[in-house]
Amino acid sequence: MGRYCILVAFFSSLALGCAEGTSGVVTVGEADIGTPTLGGRDMQIPSAPPVDAGADLIPVVDAGNVESSMDAAGPPRPMGDPACAALAECLASCSTGPCAQMCREAAPAETSTRYDAIFACGRDQGCGEPGGGFSDECMEERCADVLVACYGPPPAPPPAGMGVLTCAELRTCLTECVAGDIPCRDDCYRSASPEGHGQYTAVLDCVEACPDGDFACRFNDCQAEMTACYGPQPAGPMGMSSCGELNNCLAACEQGDVACTSACYGDSSPTSFNAFFTLGACIETSGCPAPAETACIQNVCGDEWGACFGSAPMGMGTCGEFNECVSACEGDEACFDQCVAEASVEGYSAWVTAIDCINAAGCAPGDQACVNANCAAEVEACVGPQVMPAGNATCLQFNACLQTCEGERVCVDNCIVMSSPEGYRRLVAVFDCFRENDCQGNDPNCQRLCANQITSCETHR
Predict the structure, then answer these.
(1) Where are the domains of the chain?
(2) Which class for 60: exposed (0-12), middle (13-18), buried (19 or more C-beta within 10 A)?
(3) Cis preceding-peptide flag for 49 (omega within 30 of 0)
(4) What is the pLDDT of residues 300-337, one digit of tens each?
(5) C-alpha distances out from residue 223 to 165, 175, 202, 220, Å
(6) Contact residues for 321 (Cβ-Cβ < 8 A; gap 6+)
(7) pLDDT tens, residue by residue, 379-429
(8) What are phi and psi of 244, to 5 degrees?
(9) Which has the closest alpha carbon to 223: 201, 205, 206?
(10) What is the pLDDT of residue 22?
(11) How far lies 324's CA from each of 339, 376, 379, in Å?
(12) Which residue has the higher pLDDT, 346 or 50?
């Protein structure tokens, strides 16, 4: 009876639902990156990070380019280089080499030199921080001249609050200001109550003390300040969940279910939490259409995607080849990542579309009838037209043919074509029985449970 053990792999290659077993890698609740919740290997990733009360969206108003002016000291103050500030903004929005190159090519040569001088000074003056980036305090103390040459002098600090706006209302006001619009910024601060002004300043001070990109620090270390300003906040990350698991957890939360969201955040590890929000921030500025498209996100935010989910598709493999590759992984995460890396963006995207359809239709693993009824077009776009039995091979002959294929698609298709419709139906019934009883064909208990189906196959003439 050991001949039946090949059926699981075979029928998995026929039905895209096989992904369901890849250790959560893609049962696609996981392949649905769609809207404000990174939801699985594929897109639950939000076009904006799902954060309550702007925990990582607190605006830092740009200094802009201050016009030169005469003051009591006499000489005009430098106004900076508008092109340098524009180059910095352009580069900050990039996450790929080609994008950065386009920013460089659009800037005058002297502007690039002026911009690069900032980083050269930071390195020469020892302002680097562990993990990358430079210390703001060090840069302001030791590299002020090159900063001013690019950005111009910093604006005066905002005025004291003399109005009635709460802390949260102050933040809302500031988000409506264009970057660099100092008069708008000052009007917002002036309209805040003294208490609201103080609370918002405390939030900014705490957030700015966290390393760049350390969203976990903002949630964990600034809970008191953000709660005073915005009200109760979600829990910070203190668990062990991966970035992908956080994404899937959020995907399962109902819209507006703060308790569920908070539990997902709390169960994630700080590293995973940071990877999640870094990817979310990249998606927000990616220019990808909403709901976010997997292929676009992986192209624009490849590094961030990889840090959260593992490999991004960078190869030439078709959707069908990727599906076969995944079928052979049998739940091995490293194997799955390798399959992803070898797939083309188009192939991976087509696979995700098919998986999304199968899951949305509620098809059980191996339920080919459900797949055919609901997702025939999506599956065909991935693996090609489904072949149908049109020969005269018996059930046992069909099974024997499959054993020679080792999952190879063309061989499998040829076996199906040579099978009689009745032989195909009986072998599918054997496989369905194995699946329903969660057992393998070489398991004596499985053979007992599926004895009727096995006998039906064996006696087919």
Answers:
(1) 11-48+289-383, 82-151, 387-458
(2) exposed
(3) no
(4) 787 788 888 877 777 888 888 888 888 888 777 778 88
(5) 21, 21, 11, 6
(6) 342, 343, 347
(7) 888 888 878 888 999 999 999 998 888 777 788 889 999 999 999 999 988
(8) -65, -40
(9) 206
(10) 30
(11) 9, 18, 13
(12) 346
Task: Return phi, psi of residue 221, to 5°.
Answer: -90, -15
Two structure tokens written together for 410: 């063309």
Cβ contacts of residue 298 below 8 Å, gap of 6+? 305, 312, 313, 345, 348
Find out whether 263 and 290 touch, Cβ atoms under 8 Å.
Answer: no
pLDDT at residue 59, rounded to an integer: 27
Q: How far apart are CA 454 and CA 351, in angstroms?
A: 33
pLDDT value for 79: 64
Q: What is the Cα–Cα distance from 323 to 319, expressed in whole angstroms?
A: 6
Burial 154-182 (b: 16+ CB within 10 A, else e): eeeebeebebebbbbbbbebbeebeebeb
pLDDT tens per residue across span 360-372: 888 877 677 788 8
Rounded mean pLDDT, 91-105:
77
CB atoms near residue 380 (< 10 Å): 12
The angle formed by the CA atoms of residues 108, 111 and 117, to the nearest 5 degrees, is 145
pLDDT at residue 172 greater than cutoff 70? yes
Q: Which two tokens stand for residue 307?
A: 């840090």
CB contact burial 77-99 (16+ within 10 A = b; e otherwise): eeebbebbbbbbebeeebbeeee
Taking alpha carbons only, the member of 60, 112, 68 closest to residue 86 is 112
- Residue for token pair 């921030």: 281
In this structure, are residues 200 and 163 in contact, taking their beta carbons and an 8 Å threshold?
no
State the chain's maximal CA–CA distance in angstroms: 105
Whole-angstrom CA distances from 47 to 225, 275, 395 are: 26, 15, 50
pTM above 0.70, yes or no: no
Tokens of 312: 């991004």
Residue bearing tokens 């649905």: 32
Which residues are paired to 419 by β-bridges?
393
pLDDT per residue over 221-261, tens digit each? 998 998 999 888 877 898 998 888 888 888 888 888 888 88
In this prediction, residue 397 carries a pLDDT of 92
